[in-house]
Amino acid sequence: MGGASSKERFERAATTGTLTVDDKRMRSWSRLMKGLVSLPKLRSMTVSGTRLDAPIPPSFVKLSLWSSLAYLDLSHNRLTCVCALGGVACLSKTHAKHAEDFIRQSSDAPAPSSADPLPLESLNLSGNVLHLLPPFLSRRFPRLRRLVCADNAQPLVIPFSLTHCLGVSASLEALDLRSNGLEKFTVAEDTVESPFEALRELLLDHNELGGTLTLGLKGDKAFPILPSLKRLSVEDQQGKQPLQAVDPTIFVHCPGLNSLSLRGNRNEEQIRAALGALDVYRRWQERNADIINKKIGAGGSAELMR
């Protein structure tokens, strides 16, 4: 790995189960892999602040350490493609149509044998230059509870819907997609009953969502349902078209929602007023009255709950 300090770092990781690589001289996956092959098991790995810019090679996800890895932080590098994490080859950013066709054709197909499930629980991909949210992560990582992919250096593409891209997940609890230049966001198609049954927190702040916020939910359709969603944050949308309204269907399809934050949007007060006039919103307020009062009594935030 070039240098005693790097060697000592890997030797220490073999004992502690935790590895951090933040060397700005780190430029190649082959160099990194030379150290990783010596680690048969790891619990936590952080590779952040390096100059890695090539797509993740499939060989990286075949390392033996993945059999025990629960936490992976690949934030703030220069990565352009991490599709190998989902068990697929790099999808070229210059062929967006090819990427969409591949995901459309593969989303319902069985996972390839090369993409056997792995025990990862937390993944951070923030601060890179990704052209696409990596597909099929839920199939590859069925225990994944936390996914952070924020502050991408270019607009992030999520083909079709979150479910179509990631796959259905029974374990995902927190999803952070802040500051990705998203102009639209759809949770799932209306044929999927409960795509993310454990999802509690969805952060979409500092994107470019404009017009009426719907999350792709439709008032004349029963599905999808997000039964566990508690917090939805869409603060400070920065698109050419401002955020103008919140579709009340959200309160029907997300029955457990008790925090909706709209801070920083130029039409925030108008959105609040429009919601306050709706029966479905008032019923939602009544259902969450106890939670609202507790938050206010504790000096906490109670956005859109008064």
TrEMBL record:
It comes from the Eukaryota. Transmembrane segments: none annotated. This is Leucine-rich repeat protein (LRRP).
